[in-house]
Design a protein that fits this description.
The complex is a heterotrimer of chains A (433), B (200) and C (187).
Chain A (H helix, E strand, L loop, with lengths): L32 E2 L3 H6 L3 E5 L11 E7 L2 E8 L7 H7 L2 H4 L11 H16 L5 H30 L3 H21 L8 E2 L2 E2 L7 H23 L3 H7 L7 H6 L5 H4 L7 H4 L20 H26 L19 H4 L3 H12 L7 E9 L2 E9 L7 E5 L1 H5 L3 H4 L5 H10 L4 H5 L1
Antiparallel strand pairs in A: 1-4, 2-3, 3-4, 5-6, 7-8, 8-9
Helix pairs in contact in A: 4-5, 5-6, 5-12, 5-17, 6-7, 7-12
Chain B lengths: L20 H4 L7 H5 L2 H7 L5 H11 L3 E2 L5 H10 L22 E5 L4 H13 L5 E5 H6 L20 E3 L6 H17 L4 H4 L5
Parallel strand pairs in B: 1-2, 2-3, 3-4
Chain C lengths: L14 E7 L2 E6 L4 H10 L5 E9 L39 E9 L5 E9 L5 E2 L8 H12 L3 E2 L36
Parallel strand pairs in C: 2-5, 6-7
Antiparallel strand pairs in C: 1-2, 3-4, 4-5
Classes of the chains: A alpha+beta (433), B alpha/beta (200), C alpha/beta (187).
């Protein structure tokens, strides 16, 4: 069955370039499998290689079955599922409160964004109001997490392409961010800090000066990274013009996030469908026109800069909010403060009910999308009114990003394969859930 | 001390009473091996100690892990290579991609049933002597994932020497696991495949 | 391409009913006319982006833990801690499975809509891969996890589970699996 090429053109108001090649390069009949053409197969020179699930540069357990003639990739098929953990079914067995622990492990590099999307979905179904201090802090942590995710991307992609020292520089800053997380939440990764209705604990004293130090240092660190790579002849040679994806193909393949913005489409959910308080902060959305690996790299580095600015603006607001509540007041959903348990019988009963049975979320279904560092992370929740979720589905941006592997491998060499898979920045936990 | 002493050249076998310093864990601190031999003494004594001890010291100080990062623990495993938690001080900096060249398999992350077969293949491709660290709760016992998709503990298919708890364990925790493994090797504790009941 | 806010979806072919809740629009569409509805939405109304395809199994809906009506006609008032709120029993579902297509109109005035079809066990949904190639893996996942056959898909095979896996794990009659754990409060 042929893929209909008469797809609607994208709204020109959103395009900044993106006409990278003529027509479409999405393979047909299966859009995600690049088939070896018959002429090439007739030459008898095709070697099928398995970039197995255990490979240093497949970013986790991705398996690529690649057909090669010499160094050229002529056929490609991605096999996923090696990290399938059954999150969705497991979350159906746990109460809403306990289920919040699970989404973090899905996209394990941008973990707080996953937590955020699930918690936002529950709060929307509950129609509960989150105090502004909690929202600002959530925004701050999610932007720090965005920087963290892009640092891991940059460190590992550069390592694979051969710029090995980038790994150490990026992880040095990553450790600074994880120190901030540890200060606030008690743990480096998988922090479980967001609670239905706000945050689990108040922001500790001493966090703001440390965060300021980080914000003051980070722009210089990003300058260091750009100094190493942005005009490096080898880096340019290995990433310019590689892995092309036009704007129309990107939309047809469901790409979002930096992959889409590097193909010239100005689409960022923080700007277009703002959630939290993104409409009250000032930041730029980087969009680059060429749709290659180099532009995806530039989008992510620029996003790190913008995220640092957002963190700074959040800090400005938060420093004025000392003493304000960090979680909602609704005792049916939120645990009462412990001092109250000594004096109020109703608080004791509420505490007991919430801890043993769990709070109940009214029946309904909802889909909440946010802009995670990889793209549109969406959470579809169906509740039947009980204490456990009925269905939870995470729209995983990495799952969709890997659908673009076949399209971007047009005229690619084996070395480019590594660069392209790295630039799509997919996390296998997010892909396989 | 254990049965290792005085039996030059022979690897301890299953069934012998082993007393290893770390297994009994009277308290944290340098192992008996290190207390017994300071760095200056080693030079003097290497001609006198058993071949086992010298071999164990050499093996533990240059243990090469295999790149087997599966999930979240892999990010913390990458952190131990980074400059703050430098694993190069312990000799384990060189992460080999090929299992033929590695002697330590750090299973970092949840192992789904689909991945169990490649995991066992990688383990089989490693050459003896080899060790396995189950890093994190998911590798030790499937962690929070008691379901159809996750292998309930990687020790169902590979014999594990050291379990490192945590979700994910701090890089210091993994370094502690590697250091304990190094002490086990130096003390002459047999490899897990010699005495665990998993098919080896 | 329609401009401005899409206020009414009444001319979507095969539309059975429209629901609005939490700021979202859900269009329940007859499965036999799903392809026409999706082409109409993509070509006439500008929904050029398919975000997600989610199948849901409603076997045993609602669960036994759901309580019925408790509360006051005025609903819940958090300033008056004794009011518990109006919680009606969740409504009956028309069939066992619902397949939800989350569409996004990616343009300067964005819009989202959910197209929902209700099918029973064994009934196939047509593939929308011709309209949105991204549906390829989403539909494979729907088949793999929920056992929803997709008609016209060029490569309908298991994607997340092993190729020879039996059963569809996300169905409600598929056991959670795992090991029995002592002293655990979870069932």
């Amino acid at each position: 069955m042929a893929i209909a090429p008469e797809r609607p053109r994208i709204d020109p108001a959103l395009l900044r370039g993106g006409d990278v090649y003529e027509g479409t390069r999405i393979p047909s009949p299966v859009p995600t499998i690049l088939e070896v053409s018959d002429e090439i197969r007739a030459t008898g020179d095709v070697l099928q290689v398995n970039f197995g699930p255990n490979h240093p540069s497949t970013h986790g357990v991705l398996r690529l079955i690649v057909d090669l003639t010499g160094e050229e990739v002529v056929g490609l098929k991605a096999v996923i599922g090696y990290l399938h953990t059954g999150f969705e079914k497991t979350m159906e067995q746990k109460t809403w409160w306990k289920a919040i622990t699970y989404p973090e492990r899905i996209d394990y590099v941008a973990y707080q964004n996953n937590e955020l999307v699930f918690v936002l979905a529950i709060e929307k179904l509950l129609a509960i109001e989150v105090p502004p201090k909690a929202t600002w802090m959530r925004m701050l942590l999610c932007e720090l997490n965005r920087i963290h995710s892009h640092l891991v991307y940059l460190g590992t992609s550069a390592l694979e392409i051969g710029a090995i020292s980038m790994f150490w520089y990026c992880f040095r800053e990553r450790d600074l961010i994880l120190d901030l997380f540890e200060m606030v939440t008690g743990y480096r990764m998988h922090t479980r800090y967001f609670q239905t209705g706000g945050l689990a604990e108040d922001i500790p004293i001493g966090f703001y000066p440390e965060a300021r130090k980080f914000v003051d240092w980070m722009p210089q660190a990003i300058d260091d990274y750009e100094g190493l790579l942005a005009r490096n002849a080898i880096w340019l040679e290995r990433t310019r013009g590689i892995g092309l994806l036009s704007a129309d193909d990107a939309i047809a393949l469901g790409q979002t996030g930096p992959n889409l913005r590097a193909s010239g489409v100005d689409w960022d959910l923080r700007r277009r469908e703002p959630y939290l308080f993104y409409d009250q902060v000032d930041f730029r959305v980087p969009v680059y026109p060429n749709g290659d690996v180099y532009d995806r790299y530039r989008v992510r580095v620029d996003e790190m800069r913008e995220s640092t600015r957002i963190v700074e603006q959040c800090l400005d607001r938060l420093e004025d909010m000392e003493g304000e509540p960090w979680i909602a007041d609704d005792r049916k959903v939120v645990l009462p403060p412990r001092e109250e348990l000594h004096t109020s019988m109703e608080s004791l009963i509420h505490h007991f009910k919430i801890v043993t049975e769990g709070y109940r979320v009214p029946a309904g279904e909802i889909y909440v999308p946010i802009e995670s560092p990889r793209g549109e992370q969406g959470c579809y929740v169906v509740s039947d009114g009980g204490p456990k979720p009925w269905r939870v589905k995470f729209r995983a941006p990495s799952f969709v990003a890997l659908e673009a592997t076949a399209t971007t491998m047009h005229d690619a060499l084996v070395a480019d394969l590594i660069a392209i898979v790295g630039s799509l920045d997919s996390v296998m936990g997010d892909t396989d859930r | 001390m254990g049965a290792v002493e005085g039996e030059a050249g022979r690897a301890p076998r299953i069934g012998r009473k082993m007393k290893t310093e770390r297994l009994l864990w009277p308290g944290k601190g340098p192992s008996a091996f290190e207390r017994e031999l300071g760095p200056e003494e080693l030079e003097r004594m290497v001609g006198l100690t058993t071949l086992d001890k010298a071999v164990g010291w050499a093996q533990s100080s240059s243990i090469w892990p295999d790149t087997f990062g599966l999930a979240c623990c892999a990010i913390e495993m990458m952190a131990i290579v980074s400059s703050r938690y430098d694993i190069a001080r312990f000799g384990a900096e060189v992460f080999r991609s090929s299992p033929r060249q590695a002697d330590l398999l750090i299973v970092s992350g949840r192992v789904s049933h689909k991945m169990a077969a490649p995991l066992r293949q990688i383990y089989d491709q490693m050459l003896e002597p080899k060790w396995v660290i189950a890093m994190g709760a998911c590798a030790s016992s499937a962690g929070m994932f008691n379901n159809y998709a996750v292998l309930q503990g990687v020790d169902k298919i590979v014999p594990v020497d050291v379990y490192v708890p945590g979700c994910p364990p701090r890089p210091e925790g993994l370094i502690e696991g590697i250091v304990r493994l190094q002490e086990r090797i130096k003390a002459g504790v047999p490899h897990a495949y010699e005495w665990r009941e998993v098919a080896t | 391409m329609a401009r401005g806010r899409d206020l009414s979806y009444d001319d979507v072919p095969g539309l059975i009913r429209t629901t609005e809740a939490y700021g979202e629009t859900t269009l329940v569409v007859d499965v036999a006319q799903l392809l026409e509805a999706c082409s109409y939405l993509r070509d006439e109304r500008g929904f050029n982006f398919l975000a997600d395809i989610t199948p849901t199994d409603y076997l045993g809906w609602p669960s036994s833990d759901v309580s019925g009506y408790i509360g006051t006609p005025g609903g819940r008032d958090i300033n008056d801690p004794m009011t518990q709120g109006l919680q009606a029993l969740p409504e009956e579902k028309p069939a066992r499975f619902s397949v939800n297509y989350h569409l996004l109109a990616l343009r300067s005035e964005p819009a989202r809509v959910r197209v929902q079809v209700w099918i029973d066990d064994g009934v196939a949904v047509p593939s929308v891969i011709e309209l949105w190639p991204t549906a390829d893996w989403h539909e494979r996942e729907a088949w793999d996890m929920m056992g929803i056959p997709v008609e016209g898909h060029p490569n309908l095979s298991r994607i997340l589970m092993d190729d020879d896996w039996e059963g569809h794990p996300l169905r409600k009659d598929y056991p959670i699996g795992g090991e029995p754990v002592r002293f655990s409060s979870a069932e």
